[in-house]
Automatic annotation (TrEMBL):
Its EC number is 2.1.1.206. Homodimer. The lineage of its organism: Archaea, Thermoproteota, Thermoprotei, Desulfurococcales, Desulfurococcaceae. It comes from Thermosphaera aggregans (strain DSM 11486 / M11TL). It catalyses: cytidine(56) in tRNA + S-adenosyl-L-methionine = 2'-O-methylcytidine(56) in tRNA + S-adenosyl-L-homocysteine + H(+). Specifically catalyzes the AdoMet-dependent 2'-O-ribose methylation of cytidine at position 56 in tRNAs. Coiled coil: none annotated. InterPro entries: Alpha/beta_knot_MTases (IPR029028), tRNA_m1G_MTases_N (IPR029026), tRNA_mtfrase_aTrm56 (IPR002845). Belongs to the aTrm56 family. This is tRNA (cytidine(56)-2'-O)-methyltransferase.
């Protein structure tokens, strides 16, 4: 049975340095099937603006919060769900994905930006590695969600929004569901 919810907690975001990377992590969370994205410990209006623009244009129902205490959020999550911490030091994803996929409760996926405190290694029910070499947390999140949903996330439809891409062998085909205002430029 699938968890009722899949959320991503981004820990350690540094606004001056990580805006683009965190925005891309949020985009991957949305596109690959997460129900929510939590930007822990800081408020970054640029990330929020990118989130709101993405939902407005492309649709979806991704829950978004920022500025929450990451430690408290994780501890509160444990009352109704479980935590997967993506780290290159964890167990290989293929060794644990089936168990995670079949586990009851809501799933919180933790991805770091700056050095991740020991707390997350200890609070996590699973420390999961997408390879044991240095890599991007964005790539780790995408691969984990792909393995978790077994490729079905690539076909999820996002309700709402004003644009939809029509798969096409050559070129770009985009359907506009409603006209853009001058504010969208």
């Amino acid at each position: 049975m699938k968890p009722a919810k899949v959320y991503v907690l981004r820990y350690g975001h540094r606004p001056q340095r990580d805006k683009r990377v965190t925005t891309h992590a949020m985009l991957v969370a949305r596109a690959f099937g997460a129900n929510g994205f939590i930007l822990g410990d800081v408020v970054d209006e640029k990330v929020k603006e990118a989130f709101e623009k993405t939902i407005s244009i492309w649709g979806g129902r991704l829950h978004f919060e920022m500025g929450v205490d990451s430690f408290k959020y994780a501890l509160e999550w444990k009352k109704h769900g479980f935590i997967v911490h993506l780290t290159m030091y964890g167990l290989p994803v293929d060794n644990v994905i089936e168990e995670i996929r079949n586990r009851m409760g809501d799933l919180l996926i933790v991805i770091g930006a700056s050095k991740v405190p020991r707390f997350f290694y200890e609070v996590a029910d699973y420390n999961v590695a997408i390879g044991n070499q240095p890599h991007s947390e964005i790539a780790a999140l995408a691969i984990f969600l792909d393995r978790y949903y077994q490729g079905r996330e690539l076909y999820f439809e996002h309700e709402g929004g004003r644009l939809r891409i029509i798969p096409h062998e050559r070129g770009k085909r985009v359907v506009r569901k409603q006209p853009f205002s001058t504010l969208d430029a």
